[in-house]
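Sequence in, structure out. First:
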Amino acid sequence: MEQMKPEFLAKLGLGGKEKRRLAGLLLLLAAGLTLLGLSSLLGQRDRPGGAEQTAQPQITAAAEVDEAAALEQKLAAILSRIRGAGEVSVAVTFGSSGRTDYAVNASTTLRTTEENDAGGSRRTTEETRRDDMVLAAGNADPVAVQQSGPQVQGVLVVAAGADDPAVCGQITAALTNLLDVPPHKIVICPAD
């Protein structure tokens, strides 16, 4: 290895002073890359979207799964009370998660500049828009204006009485009204 260094440097045609400069530059480059790596690792906790922020969406996803399971149990309990349905199991799939719209203070600033010179006149208009989220009094939580739940994509029902077309019709009508789902997205199957 020692023999490769001088040959490589000799091919570059560098003198002693230039070799020292090159070595110093390479050392600075290595130190800079090391500092960049450390700052990105250490700063991960403090920055928005860092390690502490990634835990929040996981909690939200877990809450949505719990909400879906609770909805399925509630639907199964309600549908099993339909005459002739018997024991019922329900599975609901969601196409999109819920959405929350927050209150915003919007302000727009217009600035017009007119310039006249020998070449003619010019008019420049600059528009600046600023949207600030409204925070609740006493804490830093944003004020929600509207919330909507996740959109139901489809429903599967397994019922002991699904062999009876009248029972299937009642289950379909109930789900259509409760979940605002079109009938073609509801599948009803008989249980074993």
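Second:
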Amino acid sequence: MKGLEIARAYWETCGQPMMEERFPELLPVAAAGLCGSGSECFGYDDELSRDHDFEPGFILFLPGENVVDRRTAFQLERAYAALPKEFMGMKRASVQPVGGARHGVIRMSDFFSDKTGYPDGSIPLQAWLKLPDWALAEAVNGEIFRDDGGQVTGIRERLSYYPEDVRRKKLAGNLLLMAQSGQYNYARCLRHGESGAAQLATGEFVRAAMQTVFLLNRVYQPYYKWSFRAMRGLPRLSLHAALMEYLLTTGNDGKLSAEKQDVMEGIAADIIEELQRQELTQAICGDLEKHAYSVQDGIRAGEIRNLHILAAV
């Protein structure tokens, strides 16, 4: 079973009965689920994932102290700690994982402040520009098993994806980086005899292209070690993950450099086609730089449009 399935089963078998018996007054204001850090929250866990920070558990989200006081929260923490130490053949860890608690009793405001800097998910427009994708992904991944009051669900809905002007700004910046690194600097570095610099240009192109693909799918890109896995599951342009792996894992000698240049141009062409399909660009050409500025021109909010084109990357 996947970690999310185990967490739900642990909640339904152990956590929910405990809440209904001992803390029924909290059910209208609390929530239970599993989200945040960890491969299991994305559904990416496998046998190897269980070698660290993996245990049966869930999060009990509590509102602020004006609704649930410290004494009650402490009692709930003790009740959670007293839940079975072993479930479905797995033991709960006796120490906290690196990075802090991933299970147990957590204030809603603390969880969402940790991920976004804003306790209720109400993020000012310009602040969206500086929030990392992986942190936003951790705020909305996983599952909420029970949320009678809907507070956690409501915050997650507010955080579900970037405002459109922010998406456009991020797209514009990444398209410009793709143009500079892949359509221009890669070949130029090789002509200078700088193979290492050419590989850096390749990496920059792949990083920006991958971010662009996630933006075009309206999906937050997770932490880098899961990015390829997540990209392979996207509905649009997912096949480019294999091409990007090829770019990163091959050298720049002989025919390879010409092949890699062709691959970059092919990725660029497909991305331009998707930009046009989504009516994000008015440019008609194969130059990603022109499309970058066209995407930026479509930003409605002047406070975002007038920032430097790379302000969001």
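Remark: The chain has two domains: 3-124+133-158, 164-305.
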